[in-house]
Amino acid sequence: xxxxxxxxxxxxxxxxxxxxxxxxxxxxxxxxxxxxxxxxxxxxxxxxxxxxxxxxxxxxxxxxxxxxxxxxxxxxxxxxxxxxxxxxxxxxxxxxxxxxxxxxxxxxxxxxxxxxxxxxxxxxxxxxxxxxxxxxxxxxxxxxxxxxxxxxxxxxxxxxxxxxxxxxxxxxxxxxxxxxxxxxxxxxxxxxx
Length: 193
Hints:
61% of the residues lie in helices and 3% in strands. It is mainly α. It is elongated.
């Protein structure tokens, strides 16, 4: 059977009903793509600032925790019941674990804003998300296995939660950058047409 070719009759511009779609020329396309690109850059900058602010506040809480008596700050919001006894005590390695939590925050900060940090002649680079998830899982696992109160476990889950949030937002930023570059590739280029 032969393929049938659809006949497209000529129509005037006033007769075209294209549901509000507008065909842009080269210059209009370039201006639109540039506006989208600028909006994406400003949005990414705002997201990075918000992530850095969140990381800074959380890191400050862990520094205060490390310098204090090491009781979980969540006990101030959700007081433990008196019958749980030893479960309210801090973890045995809470000093080391809070230091690891601070290092996780620094690593996440390096992921959000990759700076060139040089210490003793070596460039410090961030480790990946998988390694960060593993390091952030150590404290909550230790808290659960040692039978601590749920407030203590939630306190030690914060670095893992922040790692997930930054992983998700970092993925969104990368996807938006990729979408803008794909949009630039789709520009109609037909000079003089």
